């Protein structure tokens, strides 16, 4: 059986578009493409802060990005970026449609 897509939702209380833009630039490829294994990304303002939704090819793909890129950069501190860790929801996706 193949791997199944894996969804991650991050909510940053009090987060702003400016913080998102800076944080995204620090953890995504400079050419505007998605990180390896990520097949969908969206971010926007939501009640009380900023929400980011991402879909990875698999849970393993998400963990590789999280542990190899996202967490190290957040722990270093991203000047002008989000100032606190997000509230995280993960989803073993049943269906992903184009």
Task: Give a short summary of the structure.
It comes from Paeniglutamicibacter kerguelensis. The protein has 98 residues and is of the alpha+beta class. The chain is 30% helix and 32% strand.
Structural account:
This protein is of the alpha+beta class. It has a domain at 25-92. It has two helices and four strands. Strands 2-3-1-4 form a four-stranded antiparallel sheet.
Q: Kindly estimate the percentage of residues that lie in beta strands according to DSSP.
A: 25-35%
Oligomer: single chain
Q: Using the CA coordinates, give the radius of gyration.
A: 13 Å
Main pleated sheet: 4 strands, antiparallel
Question: If you average the pLDDT, what whole number results?
Answer: 95
Class based on secondary structure composition and strand pairing: alpha+beta
What form results from the Cα inertia axes?
A: globular
For the terminal residues, how far apart are their CA atoms?
22 Å
Number of strands: 4
The side-by-side strand order for the widest beta sheet comes to 2-3-1-4
**Count of DSSP H/I helices:** 2
Written as H for each helix and E for each strand, in order along the chain, the element string is EHEEHE
Low-pLDDT sequence parts: none
Percent range of helical residues: 25-40%
Can you give keywords for this protein?
four-stranded antiparallel sheet, 2 helices, alpha+beta, 98 residues, globular, Antibiotic biosynthesis monooxygenase, 4 strands
Topology (elements, then pairings):
Elements: E1 6-13, H1 17-27, E2 38-46, E3 49-56, H2 59-76, E4 87-92
Antiparallel strand pairs: 1-3, 1-4, 2-3
